[in-house]
User: What shape does this take?
Amino acid sequence: MEKEVLIPDADPMGAAIYDYYVNGNADTLIVHSSMFEDDEIPVESLFRSLEEMPELERIALHEAQGRILDVGAGSGCHSIALNVLGKPSVAIDISPLSVEVMKLRGLDARQINLYDESFTEKFDTVLMLMNGTGIIGTLDNMPAFFGRMKQLLAQGGCILIDSSDLRYLYEEEDGSLMIDLADDYYGLLDYQMEYKDILGEPFDWLYVDFDTLAFYAEENGFNAELIAEGAHYDYLAKLTIS
Ligand code: SAH
Assistant: This one.
């Protein structure tokens, strides 16, 4: 598993976050994928407040307790909201410009890759939100992900992670699924971000349905509990060491 961090010249999302924080607006943040037409991430949505967050995220923030690690924290919106709730956190991200913004926002933010084992602190809650399973990358990486979580979790700790079941993209009108079983798992996407003249490296991004996540959790010594379901095939799960 890649343990590197990004450099500012190849950090499109961080550049968008930085622009928005400093200027109050940003250009278009484009997401390319070989599976879809180009899409756009509204940069202001990365700065959502507690009230603006989807319910699954708010539930996660209320569930979070003890020492909290905000993984892939972006602009730091969840850590800011946690502060509002009186719960301090440590925020990590591979994006140098995002980390710079989070520091400007007064957060304890560090430029660290989740998979970098030289980061040895332990946490009661590991938060991974806005399709947090994305950072797992591929199903093949599940053992490495759960192994890393065993290192990061304090006794009795938990991971709060959200995702969506992308089956709806393949659903026919009669409810049957048009999925070729010989293909890769349907939630495995490749993404590449672009902002102004900055094109990031392509990366794997995993959406995973709850049953598949629970299967891999069990294989790797974890329990998966379904905490809540959203309106659009999305859910929040709590993973604990079994
Ligand atoms: N959680 C934020 C941002 C989500 S975007 C929000 O909800 O708004 C995903 C973030 O994860 C990006 O900022 C990206 O830089 C970061 N990221 C991706 N891979 C990572 C890794 N291996 N370790 C730490 N951060 C990572």
Summary: Residues 12-23 form the longest helix (12 residues). The two ends are 24 Å apart (CA to CA). The chain has six helices and twelve strands.
